[in-house]
Structure formats: structure tokens, C-alpha cells
């Protein structure tokens, strides 16, 4: 994980967040939208 460059790490992190239903606006960068979709069947 330490060998990853910042761009890779950001993309990887964004991937995880999006899979959790969290949207990361490109312009905001650090600010994460807390609007979570209701999990289906859980």
C-alpha cells in the first residue's frame, strides 16, 4: 500500500467509497457526501 502513488491510492479509496454508496465529488476532493443508499436485503 505504501508503494502506491497518490493517484492510485485516491482511485482505490474512491472505489471503496463508491462501493459503499458514498459519493466523492471531484471538485470538493476531501468533502464526502453522506447520502447513503439503503442497503437492499440487509
Describe it for me?
The protein has 42 residues and is an all-alpha fold. 33% of the residues lie in helices and 0% in strands. The chain contains one helix and no strands. The chain has one helix spanning 6-19. The chain is elongated and about 35 Å long. The termini are far apart.
DSSP strand content: under 5%
User: Percentage of helical residues?
Assistant: 25-40%
Q: Name the poorly predicted regions.
A: 29-33
How far apart are the termini? 31 Å
**What is the overall number of helices?**
1
* pLDDT averaged residue by residue: 67
Main beta sheet, described?
none
Count of individual beta strands: 0
Q: What sequence of helices (H) and strands (E) makes up the elements?
A: H
Give the overall form: elongated
Cα-based radius of gyration, to the nearest Å = 12 Å
Based on helices, strands and strand pairing, what is the structural class? mainly alpha
